[in-house]
Amino acid sequence: MCDQLERTLAKNRFFLINRTAYRQRNVIERMFCRMKDWRRIATRDDRRARNFISAIAIVATACFRLS
Fold first, then answer.
1. 12-48, pLDDT tens digit by residue?
2. 30 falls within a domain
3. How far apart are CA 29 and CA 13, in angstroms?
4. How far, in Å, CA of 5 to CA of 27, rounded?
């Protein structure tokens, strides 16, 4: 399906929605939700940004492998 017009219930406005992009966005949101289950990522215990980014990469890899 290509872009479609969808009407919101709150207001009578039409928005152009790309359904494939919306589905891909949902996959990314679910990955971040899984990553926040890890305490170190959720609380950002690392002092340096480099260490935090490395921890995100490790957790993302683990979440990808476990799912």
1. 666 677 788 888 888 888 888 888 888 877 787 778 8
2. no
3. 26
4. 22
Number of structural domains the chain divides into: 1
* This prediction's pTM: 0.53
Q: How many CB atoms lie within 10 A of CB 47?
A: 8
In a domain, 65, yes or no: yes
Residue 41 CB coordination number (10 Å): 19
3 occurs within a structural domain: no
16: phi then psi, degrees, rounded to nearest 5: -85, 120
CB burial readout 5-35, b (16+ within 10 A) else e:
eeeeeeeeeeeeeeeeeeeeeeeeeeeeebb
Determine the structural domain holding residue 66 and report its residue range. 39-67
In a domain, 43, yes or no: yes
